[in-house]
Amino acid sequence: MAGTSYKGSEIRDIDQFLSDTSGLGSDREKEIGQHIGYRYDVNLLPDYQRVTPFLKTYMEVMGWDDLNWLEDVHMGYEEGRPAVFDRNINGWVTIPEGTALPDNQQDRDMLARELLIKFQMSKRHPMVDLNKAYRKF
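Below the sequence we write its predicted structure tokens.
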């Protein structure tokens, strides 16, 4: 079986993490005291065949092979409007009105990742004001 181990946990069969009654399987899970979601649900992993042109260019410019820091970014909803959660500001960023949302959750998640990066790089992001106010040099 391809991928027979994962961060200190020996993978015996494809359903191991669903049927493992002993609980936390890997050393890292035991260390943090909780399950690591994307080990169990492949829907939480980005489908790299669906990367937007912006994200593809972004990964190339940054020299990255994947979007691992964005794996847990998904399209959600805030007060009935599509939104993405920005951990830097601890709040939801709503998707601009009129934005056509794809029918596929993977495509919506890729769009959410793209919009989050664009917002974090924009002059409208609250961190810009904090940077100006508290910059030391």
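The chain has a mean pLDDT of 76.
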